[in-house]
Amino acid sequence: MSHEAALHTHESHGHDDHGHHEHHDTFLTKYVFSQDHKMIAKQFLITGMVWAVLGGLMSVLFRLQLGYPDASFPWLESILGKWAKGGQITPEAYYALVTTHGTVLVFFVLTAGLSGTFANFLIPLQIGARDMASPFMNMLSYWFFFTASIVMLSSMFVETGPFSGGWTAYPPLSALGDASPGSKSGMDLWIISMALFVVSSLLGGLNYIATILNMRTKGMSMTRLPLTIWALFFTAVLGVLSFPVLLSGLILLIFDRNFGTSFYLSDIFVNGVGALSNEGGSAILFQHLFWFLGHPEVYIILLPAMGMVSEIMSVNSRKPIFGYMAMLGSLFSIAVLAFLVWAHHMFVTGLNPFLGSVFVLLTLLIAVPSAIKVFNWLTTLWRGNIRFTPGMLFAIGFVSLFISGGLTGIWLGNAALDIHLHDTYFVVAHFHIVMGVASMFGMFAGVYHWFPKMYGRYLNNSLGYIHFWVTMAGAYLIFWPMHYEGLAGMPRRYFDFSIWESFKQFAELNRFISTVAMIVFAAQILFLINFFYSIFKGRKVMDPNPWQSNTLEWTTPINPGHGNWPGEIPEVHRWPYDYGKDGVDFIPQTTPVGENESSH
Questions:
Q1: What's the pLDDT at 563?
Q2: Number of Cβ atoms within 10 Å of the Cβ of 479
Q3: 274 Ramachandran zone, left/alpha/beta (phi>0; psi -120 to 50)
Q4: What is the DSSP letter of 424?
Q5: 361 and 418 in contact (C-beta within 8 Å)?
Q6: What is the rounded end-to-end Cα distance, in angstroms, of the chain?
Q7: pTM reported for the whole predicted model
Q8: How far apart are CA 167 and CA 164, in angstroms?
Q9: What is the pLDDT of the chain when averaged over all its residues?
């Protein structure tokens, strides 16, 4: 009884709080230093979108160089100045663009954009909580991310240029200031930015875990949670366990760069300087520390997309998700195995072949839970009454990309094959399809599906369909041909292939890829116009539950205030996937279970 009383007090406090906020919010407390999880989610989303545009623009610029290595574009010099003398991107600028593109897309868009947006937005709404466990910590999480963004952006304007040693930041390029112009102050700013980003991720992740475990509404047992919440929970656990390892690696890197230590350096000779006094370090140590985060990072990006795709597919197929507990088990298996496969990025570093074979086995093993998920998604679609909303199309697109990109991972997971394919375009093709583009599709699916809840308006469907088909076709046309270039041995991160006799044959293909990349980038601009126009001028939502969905977020008002529910928080009586059951189209989680109801 005392627990219920406490709960009631908490709810009534939340209700008073709601009223209080309506009258006393200033512009700063509502839109800038907001502690409302919904506003923080929008801040993460829009900051991530700004970075997505910048990162995408960088890829267009370096694809211009790869597709037209001999051409000069005078307008480039007016934009990039000394980095594009005579209208041609310099080698230093090319490597800086590739490095910053990778860093920004992996961390600032796909990690912060996906987790930051949807964990913040959906966790309290779908579990029945007023807000996060610590709204203040949540706000700090965004501002650390914002500060990291400013520092990363400022690194692009230092005189020696941004860091240009690849997004993985391997020593010695990252550990020696004299290694290249991009290894000077641009690298220090890169490290500071990434350290701030890690703090943001940890603040967010701890908050998400605490909220899911402690703040579920009455009746919301763990097995009644939507798969979205489970996916975000495992994502947060992965982040909390793996990001500190990257931070420690970066701290050692700062010491090597600025304080004369030798964690990663040994017997180094620098052109024009001669032999350095560093002894006893190992550049391979950094690779272990980096990839111990780097591989869980793949799933930190993929798992939220997987969770949202499960939810969106079930809602728009009008069918229960197939194999809820199998989906849960596969999420758990992926989260565990993600920590045990990092050295498959290191087969060519002189890794002991026996140890390599262990990592091959574990790498191939991770295909099993992934295959279970794919089977369950396809079975959810099977004979469903499918509504092809833009969100649903992006969800199906995610599954397509995850299958085709994942299959090439079986090749790369084999140590003998990987020695030939490592650092070729085959790797670029594989991880862009399975992780980069697939996760972007998950993100788009989430935005299209939950936009009515976020802003109380609809996105334009016609623009959504154009956006989907151009992006879907473009994704395959850009990255699929790269597999063939990689099989032919074409190395990645090379500035100009026209001087290689063996790769001249790919000149036209590279031009084609670059052209498609520009068209796909233009389609994303179309999405941005749709997004920002619809926030203010989109068709208004009249039905609080426009998709006829079962989860709790659709029980709030169309534009929920801070506190989410104006009255008491609803109680949960069932799992979230009762669609097409006993002749009823959908049964919300708040509906009590009837006496004559069949068990799912």
A1: 86
A2: 26
A3: left
A4: B
A5: no
A6: 31
A7: 0.92
A8: 8
A9: 91
